[in-house]
Design a protein that fits this description.
Strand content: 15-25%
Order of helices and strands: HEEEEEHEHEHEHHEEEHEEHE
Number of strands: 14
Bound molecules: iron/sulfur cluster
Distance between the termini: 30 Å
Structural class: alpha/beta
Number of domains: 1
Largest sheet: 8 strands, mixed
Strand order of the largest sheet: 4-5-6-7-8-9-12-14
Helix content: 25-40%
Number of helices: 8
Low-confidence stretches: none
Radius of gyration: 18 Å
Shape: globular
Amino acid sequence: MSKDEENKGTQRQDGTIVYSSETEGKRGIIFPSPIFGPIHSRRLGVSLGVNLLPGDGKVCSFDCIYCECGYNKSFPPHQKFPTRTSVRQALQAKLQEMKEKGPEPDVITFAGNGEPTMHPRFADIIDDVILLRNEYFPEAKISVLSNATRIFRQDVFDALLKVDNNILKIDTINPAYIRMVDRPISTQYNVEKIVSRMAEFQGKCIVQTMFLKGTHKGKDVSNISDEFVLPWLEAIQRIRPSEVMIYTIDRTTPSPFLEKATPAELDNIGDRVQSLGIPCQVSY
Ligand code: SF4
């Protein structure tokens, strides 16, 4: 592939653009906005994606070294956030099409090119999506994948309480590890406060955690040892989520020397969550 093709990326039939550069941080997938999919997954079934970020780049309050969209600075957007109206209209048109031709969605998932709660009208859009879901596919669940950085905003907190699956990322509670792997943009990020705020959902949340191994810039990034898992389990106990989802890297990552946690390592951690009386879903 030429340098030019690497930089432009390759557009797939589904509208996603895949960048496969050899340069660190510059490989990733940029999703169309505001609607993408549906994607068929073994775990979620038929998932229709809502991407509240611009369709030509990434916007996130984290900059994870494993992010499937690549590093923030590699894909700065030129477009704006989609408007509330355009999200509602595009979703309605897609749901109408799915009603007529199928497939029926099992879940409407807020995900895509970054952190969905950064959209300034996030709470209003949640209300719109709930109304549309109720009208077209009342059985479908609504899921939001968030890194939890904006849950201190009352409007975001209240909106997340309304969805079926309020899925909040917390990879560890070790501040140095968070700075190295999740790389929050704000220097104010405080994991202790995030854990306390997550507990205020009173069980109406799902914790999602990435376990991985390997190195980043020569430093070990494994978070599967007791040094990381034990304090994380304590945080899980404080939050008491309805469920925990643990997973590992799946696709090519922007940081080149990351490795998957093995199924046995993930199962071991999953068993320890279950022993707290909290269901745990493990994806390899
Ligand atoms: S929080 Fe999610 S979208 Fe944001 S950088 Fe991390 S993996 Fe990517």
